[in-house]
Amino acid sequence: MDINFQHVNFKYDKKQKINTLNDINLTISKENEFITILGHTGSGKSTLVQLMNALILPTSGSLTIFNQEIKQKRNQPLKEIRKRIGLVFQFPEYQLFEETVLKDIMFGPVNFGLNMEQAKQQALDTAKLIGISDDLLERAPFNLSGGQKRKVAIAGILASNPDILIFDEPTVGLDPKGKKELLSLLDKIHKETHKTIIIITHDMNIVANYSNRSIVLKEGNIVFDGKPIDLFNNKTMLQSMNLDLPYISRVAENLKAAGKINYKSVPLTLDELYDCITGDLNE
Amino acid sequence: MNKIAFGQFVNTNSIIHKMDARIKIIGTILFMITIFLVPTNNFYLLGALLVFALILILLTKVQLSKYLKSLKSIVFLLVFAFVFQVIFRNNGTVIYIHYFKFTWNNIVVASFIAAIYLLIRKYLPMKFIFFVLTTVLIIYILGLPMHGAILNQNTIKLSIYEEGLISGSFIILRVLTLILFTTILTLTTKPTELNNAIESLLKPLELLHIKTSVFAMMVSIALRFIPTLFLEADKILKAQASRGVDFNEGNLKAKVVQIISLLVPMFVVSFKKADELAIAMEARGYIPGEKRTKLNEMKLQFSDFIWLFIFVGIFTTYILLRIL
Ligand SMILES: Nc1ncnc2c1ncn2[C@@H]1O[C@H](COP(=O)(O)OP(=O)(O)O)[C@@H](O)[C@H]1O
Ligand SMILES: [Mg+2]
Fold it and tell me: What is the pLDDT of residue A137?
């Protein structure tokens, strides 16, 4: 497996009494996974993804990323890992600093060893993929709108062509259109390249519509790791974690309560609900 | 990110904590002056002040380790001052004299010990104590009369004078007392309280049309935002690291880019935060320099007057002793 956590504990400070992350066991493949990470604020989601990028090092336990054991010491080669695992932080627009949008997108690829020509080509391709128009490329990043800045920052990560893409609450603060665009883009990347994508989110509709695996954190512990459908069928888990159902599932529940339809496993997407209704009619 | 929380305030709710912050500041300033009023090498007067500091420390009910921690940062300075005094004093009564006569053997043994120390240094607890011990050991070994080829025909003479030891100790004691008094202040007073107290003490300046309340507000905002900015810096550092910035990388050009990639976003974030804060403050009716009421109005208690009486009493006693 490409990312492998075994009994990993993490503390930000040695003096902390309880672990920020506690006994994490997790394996993630670099292909065909679309993972959503859920949990309350402060449950350790951001900390978990920073471990995956070796930005912070495990306090104890064993963490292996692309066959490299991450040790608890300062000088170890981590660049390769950072290149192969692209992490987009929450509010990534704050990391922009170059004079032009193009230069900022090129920054990652250059750091990871591409020459100027290659980096520029990568940046142009990525900008196109993500929908940054050509006239923006020579502008200063600070004059863009919030949504545009976010796009540029995300392009800056995608341009390094990582094997696994991680997003920390990427849709927070975007308008509905921007949100939809971003998610369709990620879905497209996932479908075309089969790269694993990991998203931290509070939005159950993202969980239901896009992901094929969900991880739920509670106070630093993984309390669920499995298919979204199993999560949404697990009423006690949903209740104890204060998680909502996706919109479609709520509609379905109401229909079921009114005796209009019946199902064993709650529909998560529009298609599933449609099947459920038409299936009922056909019977 | 509690470790960078500003100030060292520890709340034990002792009588020292309850003392009015203005009285504490005045007291601290008086003691600072008093310490320097003590005639050189008068251990009794200085000792009395130290005892008074220790009494206050006991009254604060803060663990002693907190005080030791604040002393730790200046131990090096103290040792340095002491050694300086002892070595370079050269008049008065000699109490110890040593002729260094280096042989190769001395050098070899000493470097051996130095090498071992450097190797195991990382794993040692209480690094500073070991550093001092090793240094003393090395100097001692260098001084041992050993057999072997003599390196240098000239001997080096180290003589220690009684006066050197005395004045060295006095300096240490003086700085120690000084630090203890200021530590009492910072350990028992919240930064905001301290700020309010300074504002209140500077009130008379308003007569000169200097807006002290605005400065006080600036200081308290700065204090409030230091931890926030540290957190932001940490985030940006990580964000750039995930874009392949290697902050351990050496060459100058790389370093410049690293610093820019950190500084520019820091400026952007700080300005944004400042902007938001200014708007939020205005929305809540803050007008610079205008009269504001306070949530915790500082009021002098009877006990505060007693404290002030004690502090001023000690101060005047020392002045009188100095004059008479
Ligand atoms: N840089 C840091 N230093 C110290 N503690 C931190 C730091 N970042 C987060 N924490 C703490 O770790 C816990 C988990 O935080 P985080 O991983 O950001 O949670 P989430 O992303 O799920 O909201 C929280 O209690 C938070 O206060
Ligand atoms: Mg988070």
Answer: 93
Q: pLDDT tens for residues B186-228?
A: 899 988 888 888 888 888 888 888 888 888 888 888 878 888 8
Choose the mutation target among B231, B243, B248 for the interface with A, i.e. most A CBs under 10 Å. Answer: B243
User: Does the beta carbon of B249 lie inside 6 Å of ligand 1?
Assistant: no
Q: Which of A13, A55, A97 sits opposite B238 (nearest CB)?
A: A55
pTM (two decimals)? 0.75
Contact B243 A95 (CB under 8 A): yes
For A198-236, the pLDDT digits (tens) are 999 999 999 999 999 999 999 999 999 999 999 999 989
The answer to whether the CB atoms of B241 and A156 lie below 8 A apart is no
Give the chain A residue nearest B4 (alpha carbons). A13
- pLDDT tens profile B280-308: 999 999 888 777 787 777 788 899 999 99
Average pLDDT over chain B reads 84
Residue pair A35/A213 in contact (Cβ under 8 Å)? The answer is: yes
Near ion ligand 2, which residues have CB within 5 Å? Answer: A 46
**How far is Cα of residue B204 from the mean position of the Cα atoms in its chain?**
29
Q: What is the pLDDT of residue B202?
A: 86
Q: What is the distance between the alpha carbons of residues B274 and B247, in angstroms, rounded to a whole number? A: 28
Closest residue in B to A54 (Cα–Cα): B242
CB atoms within 10 A of CB A147: 17
Pairing status of strand A221-226 against strand A213-218: antiparallel
For chain B, give every domain's residue range.
102-154
Ligand nearest to the CA of A90: 2
Evaluate if residue B154 carries a pLDDT over 90.
no
Nearest beta carbon to residue A111 from set B245, B264, B265:
B245
Distance between B278 CA and the closest CA of chain A, angstroms: 20
Three-class secondary structure of residue A76 per DSSP: coil
Q: Does ligand 1 lie within 6 Å of residue A14's CB atom?
A: no
Structure confidence at residue A210 (pLDDT): 93
Asked if the Cβ–Cβ distance from A89 to B245 is below 8 Å, we say: no
ipTM: 0.89
Would the CB atoms of A82 and B268 count as touching at under 8 Å? no
